[in-house]
Amino acid sequence: MMKEHINFNTVAKEHKKLYKSGKTWMAATLMTVGLAGGAMLAGTTTANADEVTPVQSAGTIQASQQATDPELANAQSDAQKQQSTIDSANAQLKDQQNQLSEAQGQQSSAQQELDQAKQAQQAATQNDPAVKQAQADVNQAQQQVDNQQQVVNDAQTAVNNDSQNIQSATSAVSQASQAVDQARQTATDAINQAAAQQANEAQNKIDQLESQGKAQASQNLDNQINNVSGQVTDTQNNVNNTNSKISDLQGQVKDLQDQEKNTQTDPNIKTVPNGVIDYSKSLLENVSRNNLWAPRDMNADSNGNPVEQNIYVSPDNDKGSTSELNLKHGVNTSLSVYDPYYNTTKFDVVNSQTGMTDSQKQELAILMMNQINHARMDRGLKPFTMTEQKYNQAQVRASQHSANGLEHNENDIISAFGRDQYECLAYIPTNGGGNMMGMLVNADITLSSMLNADASSDWGHRENFLEDTGDLNYDAAFGFHLTDDGQYYVLTFDYDGPARNNTPNMMDRIAQYQAMGPITGDSHVVDNSAKINDLTNQITNLQSTLASQQSHLRDLNTQLQNLQAQKANVQFDLNQLSSDQQTEYNNAKDTLNTVNDWKQGQLSNLDSNSNVQDALNKLSSAKSNLESVKSTEAEDETKLQQAKAGLASLNQVLATKQSALDNAEQKANASANQAVKDAQKKLDTINGKIADLQNAITTTKSTISNAQAQLDKDNQKIADIKNNQKPAKPDTGKDEGNKGTTTPKDPSKDDNKGSETTNPTNPAKPDDGKKDDNKGTVTPSEPSKPSDGNKGNVTPSDPNKNSETTNPTTPSNPTTPAQPDTGNASISGQAGHKPATSDKGSEVSDNNATKPTIVLPTTDKENGSAVSGAQGQNTTMTREQYKAQQAKLPQTGNNDSKAVIALGVLAGMFGFGLVTKGKKEF
């Protein structure tokens, strides 16, 4: 069961509660106890061995200090406990060492007994007849085993020698085999060398003639391919032109038919600023026929039309600037009057899955080229043409993988156009391009970026668009290809010089639309049947021409593919050579065949060569010798196994003889063996006891060491507490608020948190001894020299000192708290961090503080004590040492009795003071 400790803080608080209760009987009790105690103590001069009291600076024991300083009492209590542990452990250690000494003596005796028993055991076996006979039999069997072992060793040596002979014979066979291979190789090299010169000459002539024949055939094929390629190009141009004419005539027929149908107000006609648009017609046709273009002059203000025919180009001396851009040139397309332009379900709609049709791509290319051309003309440059052939080639270029990656691949460009081009590559987003008006807006953004925000490309795109072509109209075209994810169109722009074909210029379409007249919503009757019939006949004739052209084009493409396949795999044909070359070729072939036949005959009879035959004979002799050595090894191996079998049999006989010897010795030594076993068992028991005692001694020493270390810490703590005691408050004859303390309090401490440690007696009287609003007494003046009861000059402590420091401190005002940190918790660790309090002095130690130690005074009079020192010094000792010391103390006379009586009288006076003062709360 754990020892129950007294909570000194609780006791102190209960004690103060009694003071605060204001009951007068408490004062009477204190006086009675004080007088009675003084009387009893005066009648004896012998110290109580069970009472341990703290030491005063003057060398006397203050019985009241233990009750008023919990930390000192705890330290003294713990010191008593550690000393008790040390005393008990020392006693136990002494007993263990005595037992160890006794056991070591027993160990020496037991060892002598064991040695004597072993000597008797040895003497018993030496003279027994049965043992002697059995030993002789064992010696004879051992000799036979040794002899047979020699036979085995000799047989093993023979086998080992045979193995070495086999290795030598095997090596000889290997060398002979290598000699055969070398002889054959030498003969082969000689044959090859003899045939090589004639064969190489014949083969070189053959290769030369075949190469000439292939080169001639390849040149013939190249000529044919170039001829057919030109025909394919011309025919393809004819097909494209015919298709274009048919498409144009079909468009005219459709327009004439639409005019006939529009005899009443058309629901597709929608009013827009400055006119109307027809949902059944394209954006380009509506804008061209009804002149719905925005102003060509980019510096002019808006005329209400949203479709641009020009594009802003920044100044050459400030290419990235928009300072000259007229912000009033554009229109606010978010107004409802412009909704018809952006109707994505009825007006020139772009399919969201497949993208723009070829017709829509053509018109977007025309709209964009129209803007570029006007920008060029504003700078005095010739406009670009855009022929149908160039446009079709641009679509091929846009579909190539390198264009999709914005890579200017020269091979792909030449593949698409037939020659290298000036080129620009970019992307046009499809988002917002639900109809052609939206696509034009997206395209203009891309176009503007290449003209006015091209610094990252060193303005290369801008230079291509604004290239000075002199007096020539270069042929250019835009290409479009929808990416696989449908998010962008690949935009290509290519040109290479004046138009080199006779296909129509697509830029003329704007003028053709304008010639058709404006689109109106008026009701009228139109008869275009004659025009339609004429156009239909033209279309029929063109379609017949187109079919013939397409058939011819297919034949040419097939012929071209066949020629290209022949060229890729040109084969030699003797007919490719002249008559003389053919004769020369056949003679070289005959010579090569004759040489190869002679060579094969020589190689087939290679072993008939004299050098090869000699090497083969040596190889046969080496193989015969190897077989002979292997036969000898087999015989020797058989002898070795027989010798090992004989050795194993003799070892069994030896084991039987040895067992008989062991039995004879066992019978002869039966009593002696038991004596040895008993002596050995006794010695083992004593050795185990010694080991256990040594371990126990080690543990006990460790316990003593640990307890001594803790005792040293306790004694140091007691000394520290003693050195930091404060001066006792002088008796002013006034009630000091019933605080029950004799130490002036630190002004910064709470009423119930100050130390109650008693300090040296007889300090000087404070200035006025009055209280200051329950904050402790006024700081006393410099105390006078202590009386004779206190040896040495002990200066009272500064009342402002706490119980744990030695230097005086001046109370300071608490630091003003900082504003709560609510904005950045990472700085202070938490919002609303409070500053630490200051100048609160020391607090009473908690219940878990170090337990009190025992520090007792010694004087020169205590000659009988175990520890002595100079007068007035403190000495650390255990409770048992203190009891032993007190038992030897001499009679001290009436001086101590008078001091005790005075203490009782003082307590009585303090009690009367309480009675007269009455109740007062703190």
Report what the structure shows:
With 922 residues, the chain is mainly alpha-helical. 57% of the residues lie in helices and 5% in strands. It contains 20 helices and seven strands. The protein has helices spanning 8-21, 24-42, 65-68, 70-126, 129-261, 283-290, 358-378, 388-398, 401-404, 410-417, 436-452, 460-465, 509-515, 529-568, 579-604, 610-668, 670-723, 825-828, 879-888, 895-917; strands spanning 269-272, 275-278, 422-429, 474-482, 488-498, 855-858, 873-876. The strands form three sheets. The protein has a three-stranded antiparallel sheet with strand order 3-5-4, with helices on both faces. Strands 1-2 form a two-stranded antiparallel sheet. A two-stranded antiparallel sheet has the order 6-7. Strand 1 and strand 2 form a beta hairpin. Helix 5 (129-261) packs across helix 16. It is flat and about 160 Å long. The model is unreliable at 1-67, 726-730, 733-875, 889-903 and 905-922 (pLDDT under 50).
